[in-house]
Amino acid sequence: MTNYKEIKAEILAIGDELLYGQIIDTNSHWISQELDKIGVRVVRRTTVGDNRDSILAAFADAEKRADIILMTGGLGPTNDDLTKPLLAEYFKCSIELVPEALEAVRIFFEKRGRELTELNRLQAHLPTKCTYVPNEVGTAPGMWFEENGKVWMSMPGVPHEMKKLMTDFVLPKIKSLYALPVIYHKVIKTVGIGESWLANIIKDWEKNLPNHIKLAYLPSLGQVKLRLTAFGDDYDELQAEVETAIDQVRPLIDKYIYGYNHESLEESIGRLLKQANKKVALAESCSGGYISHLITSIPGSSKYFQGSLVPYHNQFKNEILDVNADTLKAYGAVSEETIIQMAENIKTMFGADYGLASSGIAGPDGGWKEKPVGTVWIACAYEGKTVSKKLQLTQDRMLNIQLTAIAALNLLRLCILGKTE
């Protein structure tokens, strides 16, 4: 399964505006994804400002690490655009007019009824060691170099121009030059368990993975993704091997797996509810309708979402949701006694199969010694019983709302699956 040589790429994003945060570098992200699809491994993504020494140093460093160096930005006709002259300096060549490039620029401006200025003519002057690559949707040409056993491509920073050059020229050219591996990814998505605990459970399975299948832990808010990446020559064979590996680990962590690849937690909830032909209703206090927003962001959610209430103040928990006034007085809104009534009453009011509720102290103030900021109760009522859970979260209000939503959705998922014990 190793009839290929690993090809490494580095992406250089050039421009002060990227370092200042005035523009987000979406180009490097997109290029990385496209290279991955054809079996090229991106080993570094570098952002460098419009500075001669910094750019030349970045060129030299990238050449040491990578077989392919892809650059975006710095190709305009003004003095602050340094990529082209510095490439000429780096490769020890001159810059000369390319008639074909000049004609392309002339036609570009002519079609738009604009005058071709002397400044715009400079776009057609290119390093003599590069291969001119026409830019059909802009004025700055692409420049392809093959030097010292490495390939280089310089592209405009304008996303649609870069993508056109990548799709039409760069990716096909790379595939023609190299015997590339097949890469197969699959992501296992888990919730309700931390990264270190998950790693401990699956450590023996991870240790026994074949050498050509790599595992990466990708933690995010309240969740951990396990990405399996297989390298080889045959896509179907790699897919089968990864599926076998997943079959082996699934019994160990089945309770925590909610989906694969791009499926979100709220999509998983919708899928489960539709499969079971069940409906859910929500009573949200501290989460302020955020959980309902997540559920209803999924197309077709009307098939399983009955509706929700956000009785933020105790008066409305009592008057609208029918939480007992004595319960609120004795235990408070943030309590197991209250959250159980909220879940059970919303289920009954909306004729749902599941009643899901949240109540807590989101912060940054409002807490006290017994119930500090971040104290949250969630509950799910179904099939004549109610499961409740206390959360102790953070001091950050928005983070607490998001973590409450993830925990509540996961509780609902476990109740649907009958895995709450």
From TrEMBL:
The species this protein was found in: Belliella buryatensis
Pfam families reported in the protein's UniProt record: CinA (PF02464), CinA_KH (PF18146), MoCF_biosynth (PF00994)
Domain (MoaB/Mog) ranges: 10-176
InterPro entries linked: CinA (IPR050101), CinA-like_C (IPR036653), CinA_C (IPR008136), CinA_KH (IPR041424), Competence-induced_CinA (IPR008135), MoaB/Mog-like_dom_sf (IPR036425), MoaB/Mog_dom (IPR001453)
Protein name per Swiss-Prot or TrEMBL: CinA-like protein
CDD domains: cinA
Family under the similarity heading: Belongs to the CinA family.
Taxonomic superkingdom: Bacteria
